[in-house]
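Pilot study result, target chain (242 residues):
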Amino acid sequence: MAAPVMIEARNLRKQFGPFLAVRDVSFQVPKGQIVAFLGPNGAGKTTTMRLLTGFVAPTSGSARIADIDVQQDRIAAAEHLGYLPENGPLYLDMTPVSLLKFFGSARGLRSAELSDRIEAVVGQCSLGSVASKPIGKLSKGYRQRVSMAQALLHDPEVLILDEPTSGLDPNQIQGVRALIRELGKTKTVLVSTHILQEVEPVADRVLFIHDGRIVFDGPPKGLHEGGRSMEETFRRLTSLPA
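Predicted structure:
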């Protein structure tokens, strides 16, 4: 049997005044797949992810998470979804633990379940040494881990991660890659990046967006077609308007 579709974009289109940011984007991501959402800055990656999560409404088209239309029933869709935006939702005067308690309560997790989940994500994201420190005093790398922990807190089936390694050092990047690979064993993951080196270590599939349109959909090795380097393919796909 084919794996169920966990993320679906149907002719998504988003216009801001005269600017068309996303142009009739359609794709499906089946259960258990890690997809790298690749493209240059300003290509439409973040806007597409915001449409998929219900953060913004489409001008036309629709998005579905676990077969739930995110505009018609955003709360139900959110139960299946963990979202890490480009700038994670952090309150700097809170500690990681107090932040996770706050988000867990907002999601309706019961006390015993919430305690178990906080312990689990603190371990997954290696936050034990800073769990009781104010987030405002943490490094960029630790703040990113806290953001990842809140996305994982309710143990969602689907993860949408927007530039999760942005601003991290090489050791921190390696840690995030390893975590994504581990999460991909049990979850469906869509992770955006504009860094080519991020693609092959983690992804089963690549969606390349340029000028608001999908211009490539295939395995990472497809970016080497014709013996090209990934950098050459990147330049070729972005050399002209889509």
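One observation from the pilot: Strands lie at 5-16, 19-30, 34-38, 60-65, 68-69, 81-84, 158-162, 188-193, 205-210, 213-218. A full batch analysis is planned for the follow-on phase.
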